[in-house]
Amino acid sequence: MESILDQRVPSQKKEIRGVGGMAFTELWERFSFYGLQSILAFYLLYELSEGGLALPAAAAAGITGAYGGSVYLAQLLGAWAGERLISPRSMVLGGGIVIALGHITLAIAPGFVGLCSGLAMIIFGTGALKTNITSIVGFILDKEPAAKKDAGFSYFYMAINTGAVLGPLTTGFAQNEWGFHFGFGLAAVGMIIALVQYVYSSRFLPARASQVTRPLPAGSRRRAAAIALAAIVVLAAASIAGLLKAERLSTIVTVACLVAAAAYFTTILKSTKVNAFERQRVRSYLPLFLASSLYFGLLFAKFTAISLLVNDRVDLTVGGWSFPVGWITMISSASGVAMLPVAAAVWKRMGSRQPKAGTKFAIGLVHIGLGFAYILLISVAHHGSSIPFVYIVIFMFIMGSSEIFIGPIGLSLATQIAPKAFTAQMVAINFLTLALGSSLSGLLGQYFTIVSNDVYFLTIALGAVIAGLLLYAVRKPVHQGLYAGIEE
């Protein structure tokens, strides 16, 4: 990592070492998150005799999509709390502890009680951890030029994808051999390792990571506590009234994400603390926000629609051995891990000549659209019969490799264009694209249950390619506003 970043003065050495520590902590947090998510849909779908909950396909897709969306939506609250109430350093530690407790609950508590309690803790714990650890990396790389920020965040993103590979690899095997609750337990072990690593590496962090940059006045703290209590009461009442049915959850989370996005963008754009250049950059980020949300909706379909496809049509038998279902999503993440070092090296070598963010996003959308066009051809060719396992492997590789054009670039871009008064919020808005993507994947999973496979894949492929081409067509005005006032 030190070879990537300039070390201009000796005082920066500890901060630069902190990037590696944060990356390793994030690896284990993603290990626990993706380890759970890789087997969650199958836990909901499988029969009781197989250790599952035997839910209908639409309900399973709705819960899986809503869970992923809620995890990322909670990061808006985490970003706010990390700036107004508790330092980012402490938020990461507390969030990690709650996540570990959530996975332990899933491992030992049966049925819906364990499911709801465990998922709720993981949602709030991840909300506290995720944006704050990314903000800390942004603090460390704050004085680096844009090209080296992209390279640094690419390596941080590689740690994310490494955890996304190791998590499903181990939990999927444990589920396949000993059952779902053993898989949930392994995810808890991963999070505990992350906590140990974080406590050790946090000593290398800059002082800014331990500061509450905009402390909330005492009166505002009481008002925030009252709002939080009211929200809990409303959720409890809605649950008792039967409004939070599994099939509706993805829709509810999608609407919440859109409302949150509108509120955040409006607040930032109307703030007197934002200058003209900052306001222009935030406005120009809107089409990239929408493009990224759509992209992640298609990518996260691997947890919903593609899981349903695997459950219904894919033959997972390999030489008499059943390939673990949790390993399917790992293939996508593994391709991202394989390609990210190459992408980081290319961006670093190209420097200022590399494609700008809008162009990279457009390429990513077309890339994943072509992946769905490929699986459409496979589906048509094997109409009425099982799809051979090898074709799903190729499809997952195509999906995962497209992420190098959007995932790390979005992280880096959010820290580059953020108004000084709203740095944490811009990082949270970037993660809101993941929230929208996750909840959208739940809706797409439910759409998968009511149309033919061929219609589904044709719709997705055309939508992604057209969106990518439209974004490419408007890239020049987008870039003019996006980098206004920034010396490249």
Topology:
Blueprint: H1 13-45, H2 57-84, H3 88-108, H4 111-140, H5 146-178, H6 180-201, H7 218-240, H8 249-270, H9 276-299, H10 305-313, E1 314-315, E2 317-318, E3 321-322, H11 327-350, H12 357-381, E4 387-388, H13 389-401, H14 407-417, H15 423-448, H16 453-473, H17 475-482
Parallel strand pairs: 1-4
Antiparallel strand pairs: 2-3
Helix pairs in contact: 1-2, 1-4, 1-5, 1-6, 2-3, 2-4, 2-8, 2-15, 3-4, 3-6, 4-15, 5-6, 5-11, 5-14, 8-15, 9-12, 9-15, 9-16, 9-17, 11-13, 12-13, 12-16, 14-15
How does this structure look, described?
The chain has helices at 13-45, 57-84, 88-108, 111-140, 146-178, 180-201, 218-240, 249-270, 276-299, 305-313, 327-350, 357-381, 389-401, 407-417, 423-448, 453-473, 475-482, and strands spanning 314-315, 317-318, 321-322, 387-388. The chain is mostly helical. The strands form two sheets. It has a two-stranded parallel ribbon. A hairpin with a 2-residue loop joins β2 and β3 (321-322). α14 (407-417) runs antiparallel to α15.
